[in-house]
Specification:
- This protein has 151 residues and is mostly beta strands.
- It has one domain: Alpha-Beta Barrel (Tubby Protein, Chain A), CATH 3.20.90.
- Helix content is 15%, strand content 51%.
- A twelve-stranded antiparallel barrel has the order 1-2-3-4-5-6-7-8-9-10-11-12.
- The protein is globular and about 40 Å long.
Length: 151
């Protein structure tokens, strides 16, 4: 299970850990939607379209590794490694909580665990590690954009 903890109240930077070990840092972009991270010696960049409804993760050679579509919708998808992963927002009242679906069965989650400290947890079995961080980064970016719009 991955856990994301905001490192500063002023930046959209999160330490992402697996247990007690920090595996990467999600560094959200200040002037555009998306961010970047490095995992296992590989650098990834995440960009969104102008509406933030479609995200693309590329490696350092600008090859597309994963794509997310319809992100602001109740149901959205991630395409990676020739597979499609379907997500569904848990509830309109629990902003930021997403469920990884296999048909009608919930097989994983991304949940906000602390509003005040800006913490999230992701349990996404079956997804490659970089794609897990990508999904978590998309959820973090979406949550921060909604929070900024509400302020």
């Amino acid at each position: 299970m991955l856990k994301a903890q905001r490192t500063s109240m002023w930046k959209t930077r999160y330490e992402i850990s697996d247990g007690d070990t920090v595996v990467t840092v999600w560094d959200g972009n200040s002037w555009s939607i998306g961010g970047h991270f490095e995992l296992d010696g590989h650098a990834y960049r995440v960009k969104a379209n102008g509406w933030g409804s479609r995200y693309t993760m590329t490696d350092r050679h600008d090859r597309v590794v994963a794509e997310a579509e319809r992100v602001y919708r109740k149901q959205w998808k991630v395409h990676a490694g020739g597979r499609t992963f379907e997500f569904k927002r848990d509830s309109v009242w629990r902003g930021g909580d997403e469920q990884l679906m296999d048909g009608d069965t919930v097989v994983g989650t991304v949940k906000r665990t602390s509003t005040w400290r800006g913490e999230f947890a992701a349990d996404l079995p079956g997804l490659p590690p970089a794609v897990q961080v990508f999904v978590l980064g998309v959820v973090l970016t979406n949550y921060n954009a909604q929070a900024a719009a509400a302020a």
